[in-house]
Amino acid sequence: MKIVGLFDLTSIINITFVPLSESHFPLLLKWLEAPHVKSWWDQNTKWTPELIQQKYGDYVKGYKLENGTKKPINAFIICIGENPIGYIQVYNAYDFSRSKPLNGLPKSLAAFDIFIGEESFLKNGIGTKVMNQFFENNIDYSYIFASPDSKNIAAIRAYEKTGFTKIDEQPDTNEVWMIKRKSTCIIYLVGNPGTGKYTISEELSKHKFIVCDNQLINNPIFTLLNYDGFSKIPEIGWNAIGHMRNAVLDFISTEQNHNYVLTNCLYENEGDRRCYSQVESMALKRGSLFVPVKLLISEEENIKRITEPSRRAKWKSIDPQDVYQREQLITIEHPHLLELDVTKLLPGEAAEKILAHIRKLKS
């Protein structure tokens, strides 16, 4: 693993990762021949346009040949605003040969390489921010592996700030082996019917969250009952839904590679409090950041939303009486709680406020 020019900026706006294309090859040529990159990256190679095409042409297509076999590799140009400033690539740590085998490490293990090509962006403090954002959105592995040169003290410190831990030193290759468990997040949206839990979840799904809303669990039973959006669900139906919820949460607790957003309407009663505790315990078990979000809404707006006919197609309640005849929403006491009034917010706006809250928790 190679790393060049990492730093620690306190605030960054608009870090993006653009998939590598052939139009970026002139940039790669310039960067790879820059002295500050050359000192750690392919020191013995004199790069030419032909060599860039030969090596990175396949990366554009999403693979690298290893002993004649195509192995996936995802390559990106790092951008700050509109400015391309560096390069990052990620791949399965076991797909490519190393000087020493990776024995005794987790099976789900990514490796990556990164450099900052634009010298004007060095020592401006963006390295850990870039890596954290990249890991959050572009890694589908449980763990991430790094192997900086033992002399590259700045790189080692940058990795430690990003959450990597030293696990071994390799004197014969001058490498420090480091590992980081991928940080995941569980968002739990709690609110009355018609507050927009599902539409907000759909917006969050655009940011690498998998939606597991309450209808995903409820709908098989609602379908079998031919639920009309008004009728009361019998006890046998809720019991079956409870079994399905247990199975889904057990799966998520062991599937630790992804972020999830769950939704529910929970009131201040023993059964609903048990549901909340079950989700909170699941997040704790998988080592995820748990973020409960309590959605609030005015009565007038709630009635407008709950009677929207499109809700019926998703087996949701369309009964306005649910606005008037409802219990008190569950009381949530958690240090990560966000109470969000969505009366005047579009789903995308609400999602952005939730993401901003999460970024603050992680900072």
Radius of gyration: 24 Å
* N-to-C series of helices and strands: EEHHHEEEEHEHEEEHEHHEHEHHEH
Say how many strands there are. 14
Under the CATH scheme, the architecture of the largest domain is: 3-Layer(aba) Sandwich
The structural domain count equals 2
Tell me about the largest β-sheet: 9 strands, mixed
Roughly how many Å apart are the termini? 26 Å
Helix fraction? 25-40%
How much of the residues is beta strand, in percent?
15-25%
CATH class of the largest domain: Alpha Beta
Structural write-up:
There is one protein chain. The protein has 363 residues and is α/β, with parallel strands linked by helices. Helices cover 36% and strands 24% of the residues. It is elongated and about 75 Å long.
In short:
This protein has 363 residues and is α/β, with parallel strands linked by helices.
